[in-house]
Amino acid sequence: QVQLVETGGGLVQAGGSLRLSCAVSGRTFTDFAMGWFRQAPGKEREFVAAIRRTAIITYYADSVKGRFTISRDNAKNTVYLQMNSLKPEDTAVYYCAAKYSDYVSRYDYWGQGTQVTVSS
What is the pLDDT of residues 23-81, one digit of tens each? Predict the structure, then answer.
């Protein structure tokens, strides 16, 4: 059974940084392309960042480009989201997700989420 467990959320002041981690178990990590999504109260879940299985290609939402960095450590079965210059509008529950193909939009597995709160 595939499991994704996010850690690293918390409360931070605007301008600060956090690093989220997502540990994957139950299947070979390199089988998956990985993504980060977020959902703020009263809003739909939105895409934040993604990384291909080879880790060579990454994608970002315009709202986080230049501030967030997605990376993966295949030896540790973990994907990271480094978040810098945080803004109050980044406040949300952050979810990691895994999919088998680099070329489809649908993700197959999701974590339980971790709360990120940015105070002004």
Answer: 999 999 999 999 999 999 999 999 999 999 987 899 999 999 999 999 999 999 999 99
CA neighbor of 48 nearest in space, from 77, 75, 20, 23:
20
Phi, psi of 12 (to 5 degrees): -145, 150
Measured distance CA(71)–CA(68) in Å, rounded: 10
Q: Contacts by 10-15 with C-beta closer than 8 Å and gap 24+?
A: 10/115, 10/116, 10/117, 11/117, 11/118, 11/119, 12/86, 12/116, 12/117, 12/118, 12/119, 13/118, 13/119, 14/86, 14/87, 14/88, 14/118, 14/119, 14/120, 15/85, 15/86
